[in-house]
Amino acid sequence: MSIILSLFTLLGGIGVLMTGMKYMSDGLEHGAGKGIQKLLGKMSDSRLAGFGIGTAVTGIIQSSSATTVMVVGLVNAGIMTLIQAVSIIVGANVGTTVTGLIAALSAFNISPYFAALAFLGVFAVMFSKNERVLVVGKVMSGLGLVFIGLSLMGGAFKNDAMAAAIKTIFESVSSPLIFVLFGALFTGIIQSSSAFVGIVISMVGISGSIPLESALFIILGSNIGTCVTAIIASVGTSINAKRAAVAHLLFNVAGTIVFTALLLIFKETIVAALQRIKSPEFQVAVFHTVFNVATALLVLPFVGQLAALVERILPGLRPDGVKKEAAQRLTYLDDRLLQTPPVAIIQLKKEIKGMAGLAKANFIRGVESIIKRDVRQKEEILDDEERINFINKGIAAFLIKLSSVSTAKSEELFVGSMHHVISDLERIGDYAQNFAEETEEIIKKDIRFSDVAVGEIESMYKKIIPMYDAAVEILMNDDVKKLNYVSEVEDQIDLMKKVYGDNHIKRLTAGDCTVDSGAYFYAVISGLERIADHLTNIAFSIRSPSGSQREAMAILAKEHK
């Protein structure tokens, strides 16, 4: 019965360890969200830059699997090239070694002190509303749980019968390849090489139930098992996204084969060198680090060749053998990016900027059709309006999913604001369509505006164009300095509508305009005024989810105190 209880304790320790890693990863990810965004903003075709980004991002979020899934999502969205993806994946393998080094700290009998962090972290999360304190609390809780998990696993092996049974099993296995297969299989099941490395470190160091030479082969196998997550994530993606997942697999398999061969040939020498390190935990962690760093350095100069090899393995599909992709698709978003909310937010902003560009183009076409009495662009306006509506629904669905995975307060506010922003952009698109349809009616009814009326429409339109650009720039760059400009232009547009409305009544009285032309004129200037209102909402949404000027200004006042 004691063996069964020890087994339950072991499983519980593994569960606590994995929970702690997830909690720590989430905290670090939210705390370093802007840093991750800046790193990805520096993405280029340089393999060294990609390697650095992959290492840094994985070191921050403590999960090479999450990084590779993010890369698959970016490639699938067409944002990242295959060579960029491979460079980042190579770096991710180095970044993941941080977790093993953290787990190895358990060798210094400091687990009780680190475990106390779990209490302090939970206390901070429960009783603080400050976002920075909440992030620190999550990281502390996660780190504490990691060491609690390691301690529980160590306690499970204090049962001599269980420790001896496991040791006997591992010592009875004669083929090192079985250990490689075991590491790959177990890591593939739990889909976390970081957690599995922590488990192996615990079993080697705390209990000594796994011989060091066996552990080394198991560690090599774990690097193959971690590819399972990316392979699963690539199902149903573009050909390039599938290539990124296969590149990850090939890279790790190649590294494992090389180091397995080295271990088979120089096992005694390598084991003896590692045993110079007094701590068994650090013996495993150092081997894991050396393996990943050495493999990365070997492969990095040949990233282009690896990408070319993958393209040969998965050649471009022939048009006659593939269903054509639907014309309607989001450009920058992919659900796989939801695993890393800071990256999802970067891509979300790009998608919204694209939507804003479409709405602006339609706005220009719509007003120009009124001014020039020309409906030749109506089909383009209707096509883009359909596209705008599609993007609006797609972004709204993505925002709902993002809200379920975002826990940082700033991210929650951003998601709330973006729901209003895309609604405002969609309404601007509607007004552009209205202008085109009104132009068609004006031409059919042979209604003509006076030169003065056309000039008034044009003057409002010319005021709104730079306002539009400013509103989008404010939204993309959080540029609070331009809010006053947008507010001033909106006031000017409101005044122009009132003055031009009064002028129209005077023209009616003087007989310069007809009642029919007046109705259309007033509809146009009202539409322009409403577009300016929507742009103001978009600009002020950076501080107020609803776009309220009053609320945004109050928040800005508090920020400057």
Could you please describe the fold and organization of this structure?
The chain has 561 residues and is mainly alpha-helical. The protein has two domains: 2-313, no CATH class; 342-559, Up-down Bundle (Methane Monooxygenase Hydroxylase, Chain G, domain 1), CATH 1.20.58.220. The chain contains 23 helices and no strands. It has helices at 2-31, 33-41, 47-61, 64-76, 82-95, 97-104, 111-127, 131-156, 160-172, 176-190, 193-205, 212-225, 227-233, 239-274, 280-299, 303-313, 341-372, 378-405, 409-444, 451-477, 483-510, 515-540, 549-559. It is elongated. The N and C termini lie far apart (64 Å). The relative contact order is 0.08.
Defining key terms:
single chain; 561 residues; mainly alpha; Methane Monooxygenase Hydroxylase, Chain G, domain 1; 23 helices
If you average the pLDDT, what whole number results? 83
Residue runs with pLDDT of under 50 for 5 or more positions: 317-327
Q: Radius of gyration, Cα only, in angstroms? A: 30 Å
Total individual domains:
2
Biggest beta sheet summary:
none
Separate helix tally: 23
- Report the principal-axis shape: elongated
Secondary structure: helix percent? over 70%
- Determine the N-to-C terminus distance: 64 Å
Counted beta strands = 0
Order of helices and strands: HHHHHHHHHHHHHHHHHHHHHHH
